[in-house]
Amino acid sequence: MPRMGRIVLANYPHHVVQRGHNRQVVFAADADYQRYLTDLRELKDAFGVKVYAYCLMTNHVHLLLAPGESTTGLSQLMKTLAARATRYRNRLEGRSGTLWESRYKSSVVQTDTYLLACSRYIELNPVRARMCAEPGDYPWSSYRGRISEDAPADWLDTDPYFLALGADPGARRERYAAFVKQAIPEEETRLIRDALQRGQLTGSDRFVEEIERIAGLRIERRGQGRPRKCSEK
Asked: Is 22 left (phi over 0), alpha (psi -120 to 50) or beta?
């Protein structure tokens, strides 16, 4: 089998990160963040991609995306988002040139074991960066919209494992908030981070074998950790 390049699979979630060119600032004002989210909301439907989680940081974005039957939708979404943000920034600053790194990074996520863990990882980015004490304090991630009864992000897609957290929206919000507050094993954080940076899969050995069969690829293995389930303390 050939070795793995970037894998994109229909109907699987993908953890995606795109960084500013040379780590430059891509969001300098509230309007910059708002515009990107407006574009994301519009384009996800245009390209048939589900958005499960997001976090916009000063110089990069984290997204949890699931393309539909057309796998090209994910790359088209990222390309169009980047192009719109670049035109917007260049117009504001009266400049030309690139805003983003030329290639975004992505990792296919094992849905049953790691999807909620990846959502948590993404939404805790501002806390790890010491930009805020609690994920709900940060306005540019999906966390507020996920747990807010008063201002839900109704454009976000809801994955089946979030739905399984409770019988009604209130129970799901409460249980997810508790999940985010749990102590997170270092091996879980390391696995999610390293899988993304190295273009590996976010999942177990069995998941790697499953994707090898689906994609006809030989995939690099590494030590695996397993995240705690929402019910674990």
From this structure: left
